[in-house]
Amino acid sequence: MKTPQIPIAKEGYPFIAFSAFVTLIVAILGYPLLALPALALTTFIICFFRDPERIGPISEDALISPADGKVILIEKIIDDQYLLGQVYKISIFMNVFNVHVNRIPISGIVEKIIYFPGKFYSADSDRGALHNEYCATILKSTSGHRLAFVQVAGLIARRIVCWLEADDQIRRGERFGLIRFGSRVDLYIPTQTQLEVEVGQKVRAGETIIGYLP
User: Can you tell me the distance from the alpha carbon of 202 to that of 214, in angstroms, rounded to the nearest whole number?
Assistant: First the structure.
């Protein structure tokens, strides 16, 4: 039987290669007290950029989590940035040990991409929600619903990666980007959505059902 391999996001290759090179040089020079921490750092970077396969739900109405992590906020708000109306806002916080590859929550077409080069406060703080760098994708689902998912940089994160462009036809569960080294993803969805998650729950990108669209 073939042993399954855990893939690595291509954005991680330069970081892994550099860290592995430094580890090798330190080991060759005979500095074991430096080589061990360097090896541990290389292992951490490999784990951070892991990109495992995921199997999503069968129902086409199911809205799946765009990120691995913990649900830290569910609230009904008036959104004046993306959808311009009353929505549910759901925030998922990713710590440095979570998978950081993000996935499409529902199939549809990309209406707009909005990038804001902000600050780098802690991703789970109020200041982070207001001022951090973010990249927002506004989507119209195949069933006609409009929603948004927003990648928000964190305290350590210094790079948001989003591969989507306006007018892209996208499918639920596909990878659409990642955020390097700690961050958050916010979902803005219709208030008629039947929610299936609660604050404090741990979720997995591409698998956990956030709710069912009406």
Answer: 24
- Asked whether residue 170 is domain-assigned, the answer is yes
Give per-residue pLDDT as tens, 118-148. Answer: 665 555 555 555 567 889 999 999 989 999 9
Range of the domain at 175: 62-212
Residues 94 and 160 placed together within one structural domain of the fold: yes
Same-domain status, 31 and 134: no
Whether 65 is a known active-site residue: answer: no
Encode pLDDT of 4-48 as tens digits.
Answer: 445 877 777 888 898 888 888 888 888 888 888 888 888 888 877
C-alpha angle with apex 185: 180 to 83, nearest 5 degrees? 135
Domain with 154 in it: what CATH number?
Answer: 2.70.70.10
Distance of alpha carbon 162 from alpha carbon 151, whole angstroms: 8
Q: Which of 19, 65, 91, 183 is catalytic?
A: 183
- Answer yes or no: do 93 and 154 share one domain: yes
Q: What phi and psi values does residue 137 have, to the nearest 5 degrees? A: -115, 120
For residues 189 and 211, is the Cβ–Cβ distance under 8 A?
Answer: yes
